[in-house]
Amino acid sequence: MTVQPRIDVAAMRRALSTAEAVMALNPPESPMIDGYRLFRVSGGDVAWLDMPANAGAYAVFGSHPRCDVKFASGDDVCVRHLVATCCNLPDGAFGLRLMDLQTSIPFFVDDDVPRRSIVVSGPLLVRIGKHVVGGLPVGPRASSRVMQVSSCGMSEPPRGIESIAEKPADSAAPQAPTEGITTSHRFARGEISHITSVRPVSHIEEMVAPRAKTGYVRLTLQSSERSAAVELPEQALDDGVLLGRADNCLDRGLRAVLSTHISRTHLLLLRDGTEVMALDLCSTNGTRYAGQKVRRVMIPTEGLALTLGPELTLIWHPQT
């Protein structure tokens, strides 16, 4: 059965007008810093966050009270639902990557195609359940030019640009777009956004490796009573790998080590270009590195150890 959006495009655009009116009264504190102004609209309620394009900034959307951009609790969003990060584009500008955390509820732009992971050059407006989420680029490098190649998980350069307006009215039910295809969308204010679908956060079964070898990484979870180790293909890190107690997180014996002190979706392992990052997903009990609570840690090739919650150790083994 095809998943359909719960609000229409007209409601999405009205939500944008509401957000712009509210945010106009609260301009960015540093308008000359590149980044995205992220926002969420639920009915007449607007929440927003200014996210710089550098310093490894990211934002978690969800109904958990620790999330950076919060939804009201309900059946149309998850506790931790989306992650947004900025990424550098080959033309020197920056874009926005939006990733669904393997939930049961996809998001939609203006074409009613369910999506899980996209990279955007220019402004963004999507529907998720009964809510609208958006991002407006700010700063001197803000761009709406076509993205040619992405370092943020796209498997290959776009093979073409598809205009949604040119689709025949009697076309079949919308299908998930092919990875690497860029579609052009006219934003409500007249700007053109270019949206590239990329691979979603990796599924459990995609990360089976018979043994560690070239192109794989190894990590271990260790508690006071037990431990488990897995090998993952490096390519999975381009899509993102989830660690936590939820069924959509990586298992292969890892979840048996986790206690209730670990959030259901606790950590995201993600490669951006040549860097591998561990992103805490606004977890309840936090992530620590060298004794300090952290949101983001860049993982060096020589490996490192993180503490998840009060006592669980994540060991990222050196790469050979």
Describe the structure.
The chain has 320 residues and is mainly beta. The chain is 7% helix and 37% strand. The longest helix is centred in the first third of the chain and has 16 residues, at 9-24. It starts with 8 loop residues before the first helix and ends with a strand. The model is unreliable at 144-171 (pLDDT under 50).
What is the compact description of this entry?
With 320 residues, the chain is mainly beta.
List its traits.
320 residues; mainly beta; eight-stranded mixed sheet; single chain; 7% helix
Summarize the helices and strands and which ones pair or pack.
Blueprint: H1 9-24, E1 35-42, E2 45-52, E3 58-62, E4 69-70, E5 82-88, E6 94-100, E7 117-121, E8 124-128, E9 131-138, E10 161-163, E11 182-186, E12 192-197, E13 216-222, E14 227-233, H2 234-239, E15 241-243, E16 267-272, E17 275-280, E18 287-289, E19 292-294, E20 296-299, E21 304-308, E22 312-316
Parallel strand pairs: 3-4, 10-11
Antiparallel strand pairs: 1-2, 1-9, 3-5, 5-6, 6-7, 7-12, 8-9, 11-12, 13-14, 13-22, 15-16, 16-17, 17-20, 18-19, 18-21, 21-22
